[in-house]
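Quick one: structure for this chain?
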Amino acid sequence: MFNKKRKSYGIKKIEDKYVCEECQAEVPMHQDCPACKKHIDWDRFLTESKLR
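Got it. Here's what it folds into:
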């Protein structure tokens, strides 16, 4: 019924790992995706995830 729009930063956190939304590869903190080279907006992701 309610469609909550999810913000995308190019990354998602699964347990204690960060995973690229595009290729599902594990991404080291503060780096772009090593597999598909997608840019990750770490500043925005970390700032807004702390506000939740």
